[in-house]
Amino acid sequence: PVPLVDYDEATARALAASLQAALDAEIGAGVVPVVVGFPDAQEGQPAGPAFVSISYGQAEEAAVNPSTYRETADGDSIEVLTTVARWELSVQVDLFASQRDQRAELGPVIRQALSPGTAHPKLALTLDDYHDLVVLLAVDSVQDPDDEDAFVAREWRRTWSCTVTGRTLTGRTLVSLDDNRTTLTAARSIDI
What is the mean pLDDT of residues 106-126? Predict the structure, then answer.
């Protein structure tokens, strides 16, 4: 079997790249960093007046009847990817800002990046690290946890709770026997 990377990590990396591109285009390159993992106060947070973090939970999988997802020919071999399950992954996107105005400015940029259209409100992400699988992200809720502690800490936060759906793939490589027989026959015909 072909080894596969974890789809949850691949999802977080793809979402981080997508959000970073959107923020860089709207606000400026590198002004608002996007990190994978919820910030730990003891380990420090990204520098700057605002940043975005992406965290995720444990995916829920449901087995399906195996079906071919994709076949890719490469010379004498064929890579076959098979769908063996469907999964849902809970993802949380948090915007941390040091001022309420920053949150008000950055919130719509992130909202647009997560829900790009009204006709198709789900975001399609391609998982480069997981066989270019396309997954769909839907925003379930948005919260602004404003309280006295946020005002005192100068931490204005907005949280998007999302669900990403995708497929679990297994892979295998098949080698063409016809090509191997042709090679062997050709080798026997050569006088050495």
Answer: 88
